[in-house]
Structure formats: structure tokens, C-alpha cells
């Protein structure tokens, strides 16, 4: 019965049983039924009982068997059989349309040739009704199948979106802090003088790196990873020095936050600047308002804060103190533009790059209708981001 099996598919066994009983009642009215006629009737009825099990295969076989029986005079097969009509309808419902139409046409021609015009009128009428009923069932099955596919597609899309969100949250809450610990310990190891302190700091760095690797593995699982860098092509992995680390600051999630969301964004930026200053970085991030634009949607505000947090984390990992960095966030009436530039850390001090962070953000930003461009110019890492502010 296919994918539509179960209690709702009892209509075909019920119709088959009703058709067989109707044919049995009509056959019993015959006063002089010969043994060959009884054998043909029983064999055809039993064959039709297979239709609920394999309708796509059994229906054409039943129609063909009925036409053969009609062609043999000794079989006494009636021109109008309930099981025969049911087989025509089931053929239209479950078999390819050209095959079903061909079988029905041959049956009509055979009836005309063997039985004559009066019988043809009744046969054509009932076969037409059976074909229309079968076609109606076909259309309903097709519509149900399309609905199921649409539901499955939506569920798959929601699952993918949920996994992406979980992966992003894991980056937000774990990898940023671990990356900060690694960077701070590596900075302290540069000025080490006490061997015992060096051993302790090395152990802290190694354990933090191990935890970071484990977090990356969990993120790969959430993203349905088949390799260590899922959904990231070689060009992305080569051009993105940023790690997948980004804090999730306390940005008001309400739909109408008013000017307070700018204050929250500036507070978060100030905290990130102080973290970089402690590590010896020099630079600034300017948050500029062009007029008094309407606050963007909550998901845009959230992603804006998250991607800014990751850009700061990337500076910690891939910019060598005391090099400079510059970041500008310009919020306009129609779009939000972010540009960040920093020097690339020398290869001998470069940390292991996962290639996940900006790949995740590129997908999230694209889903919001924005863009992200990354590149290297004159040993300077440059990121340009646009987000719609009126989404």
C-alpha cells in the first residue's frame, strides 16, 4: 500500500470485499453454471483479493485476466463485473496513467467486439465512473504525499536551523572564554622567568586547548559534520583567520527596544576594548548613528552583537600586540555596516585555526539578508559586513 498504509487505507480491502460479495451474489443467480465458469469465477475473485496487498501490480493483472476471460466464451465471464470495475479504478489510482488508460481502452474495445453496442454503453459508463473514482484517489494521494514532503522539508529545515543555532550558542558561551585563556597564557609565557610558573601556565594552556578542540568536535556534530571543517570550502578555510568565538552580550531582545539597545551595544564594545587593552593591543571601535534610525529587528540586533564579539575575539587570537586594530560600526536607516581591520599575527605565534566562526556567521548573516566579505590586503585582515536595519 506504500506510505499511506494503516487505518486510513482500509477503504481498498473494504471495497474489494464488497465487490467480491456483489459478484458472488450475481453469480449465484445463474441457474446453470458450468464447472469451467465456476473455476474462472473463483480464480478471478481470488486474484482480485490481492489488490489490497499490491494494488499497483495486482490491478493491471486483474484487468488483463478479466479481458482474457471475456474472450473465452466457455468461461461465461460477464461484461460488467464489480471486481473488474474495481480493478480499473485501482489501476487509475495506483499505476502509471498511460498503462491504466490503455488497459481501460482495450477493455472497452473488447466489450464492443464481443458483446455489442448495448453492452458497450453500460461498460463504458461504469468503466468511466471507475476511472474517475480512481483518478480522484490518485490526486488525493498525490496531494497527501506533497503535504508530507513539505512537512518533512520544513522539519529538516527547522532541525538544521536549530543545530546551527546550538552550534552558534556553543561558540558564544565556551570557545570565546577558552580562546581568551589560551591567549592570556601564551602572552604570560613570553615573559616567563619562574620554571614552576612556566610549567603551570603550559598545563593551563594545554588543557584549555584540549577543551577548545572538544568544543569544536561537538560543534561539528551539531552541524552534521562529515569532516573536521563541515560546510566550509577550502577557500573559506584559507582566507578566514578568525576562530568561531563570539560572546552574546545583554542586548535587549524586545521588538521595540528604543535607544537602549545602542547603549547596550556600546557597553559591550567598551568591555571588549578593555580586554584588548589589558593584553597590550591598541585600537578603538566606533559605534556611529546616522541620524535616528529605527531599531532593527531583534535577530539582526543579536547577530550584530555576536559578530562584533567574534571580531574582537579574532583580534586577540590573530593580531600580535602591540599592533593596532580599527573597527567601525555605522548604523543607518536602511542598513548597518561593520568594517574591521587588524594586522595578522606572525606565523610563529599563530594559533590553530578552526575555520568555523566566520563560516557560521556568513550563513547567519546571509539568512538575514546581509553580506560578509573577508580578505587580506598588505598583511592586514579586513572584514566588511552589511546587515539590513529595516528587516
Give a brief outline of the structure.
By secondary structure, the chain is α+β, with helices and mostly antiparallel strands.
**Overall CATH class of the largest domain:** Alpha Beta
Please report the distance between the alpha carbons of the first and last residues: 47 Å
Mean pLDDT: 76
Total strands: the figure is 5
Any idea of the CATH topology of the largest domain?
A: Heat Shock Protein 90
When the domains are counted, the total is: 2
Placed side by side, the strands forming the largest sheet appear as: 1-2-3-5-4
Which homologous superfamily in CATH is the superfamily of the largest domain? Histidine kinase-like ATPase, C-terminal domain
Helix % is: 55-70%
Individual helix count = 11
Content of β-strand: 5-15%
Topology as H/E string? HHHHHHHHHEHEEHEE
Radius of gyration: 37 Å
Query: Overall 3D geometry?
Result: elongated
Spans with pLDDT under 50 lasting ≥5 residues? 1-8, 225-256, 348-354
- The CATH architecture of the largest domain can be given as 2-Layer Sandwich
Structural class by sheet pairing and helices: alpha+beta
Protein name: Histidine kinase
Organism: Bifidobacterium samirii
Biased composition (Acidic residues): 233-242
Region (Disordered): 227-260
Provide structural commentary:
With 391 residues, the protein is an alpha+beta fold. The chain has helices at 11-28, 35-48, 55-71, 82-94, 97-115, 117-190, 195-222, 234-239, 260-278, 298-318, 357-367; strands spanning 282-289, 324-331, 335-343, 371-377, 380-388. A five-stranded mixed sheet has the order 1-2-3-5-4, with helices on one face. A hairpin with a 3-residue loop joins strand 2 and strand 3 (335-343). Helix 3 (55-71) runs parallel beside helix 5 (97-115). The longest helix has 74 residues, at 117-190. It is elongated.
Amino acid at each position: 500500500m506504500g506510505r499511506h498504509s494503516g487505518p486510513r487505507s482500509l477503504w481498498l480491502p473494504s471495497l474489494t470485499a464488497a465487490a467480491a460479495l456483489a459478484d458472488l451474489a450475481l453469480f449465484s443467480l445463474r441457474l446453470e453454471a458450468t464447472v469451467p465458469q465456476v473455476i474462472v469465477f473463483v480464480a478471478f475473485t481470488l486474484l482480485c483479493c490481492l489488490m489490497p496487498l499490491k494494488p499497483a501490480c495486482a490491478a493491471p493483472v486483474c484487468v488483463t485476466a478479466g479481458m482474457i476471460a471475456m474472450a473465452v466464451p466457455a468461461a461465461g465471464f460477464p461484461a460488467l463485473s464489480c471486481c473488474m470495475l474495481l480493478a480499473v479504478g485501482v489501476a487509475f489510482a495506483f499505476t502509471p496513467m498511460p498503462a491504466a488508460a490503455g488497459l481501460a481502452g482495450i477493455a472497452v474495445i473488447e466489450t464492443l467486439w464481443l458483446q455489442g453496442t448495448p453492452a458497450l454503453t453500460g461498460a463504458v459508463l461504469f468503466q468511466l465512473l471507475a476511472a474517475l473514482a480512481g483518478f480522484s484517489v490518485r490526486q488525493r494521494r498525490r496531494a497527501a504525499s506533497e503535504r508530507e514532503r513539505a512537512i518533512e522539508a520544513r522539519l529538516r529545515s527547522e532541525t538544521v536551523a536549530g543545530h546551527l543555532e546550538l552550534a552558534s550558542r556553543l561558540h558564544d558561551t565556551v570557545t570565546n572564554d577558552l580562546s581568551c585563556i589560551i591567549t592570556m597564557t601564551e602572552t604570560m609565557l613570553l615573559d616567563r622567568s619562574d620554571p614552576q610558573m612556566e610549567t603551570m601556565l603550559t598545563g593551563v594552556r594545554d588543557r584549555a586547548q584540549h577543551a577548545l578542540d572538544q568544543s569544536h568536535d561537538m560543534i561539528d556534530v551539531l552541524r552534521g559534520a562529515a569532516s573536521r571543517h563541515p560546510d566550509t570550502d577550502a577557500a573559506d578555510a584559507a582566507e578566514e583567520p578568525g576562530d568561531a568565538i563570539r560572546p552574546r552580550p545583554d542586548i535587549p531582545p524586545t521588538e521595540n527596544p528604543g535607544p537602549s539597545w545602542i547603549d547596550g551595544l556600546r557597553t559591550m564594545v567598551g568591555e571588549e576594548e578593555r580586554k584588548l587593552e589589558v593584553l597590550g593591543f591598541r585600537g578603538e571601535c566606533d559605534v556611529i548613528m546616522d541620524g535616528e534610525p529605527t531599531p532593527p529587528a531583534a535577530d539582526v540586533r543579536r547577530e550584530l552583537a555576536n559578530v562584533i564579539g567574534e571580531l574582537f575575539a579574532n583580534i586577540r587570537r590573530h593580531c600580535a600586540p602591540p599592533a593596532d586594530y580599527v573597527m567601525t560600526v555605522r548604523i543607518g536607516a536602511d542598513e548597518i555596516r561593520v568594517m574591521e581591520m587588524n594586522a595578522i599575527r606572525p606565523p610563529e605565534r599563530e594559533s590553530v585555526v578552526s575555520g568555523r566562526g566566520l563560516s557560521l556567521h556568513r550563513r547567519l548573516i546571509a539568512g538575514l539578508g546581509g553580506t560578509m566579505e573577508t580578505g587580506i590586503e598588505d598583511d592586514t585582515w579586513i572584514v566588511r559586513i552589511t546587515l539590513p536595519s529595516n528587516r
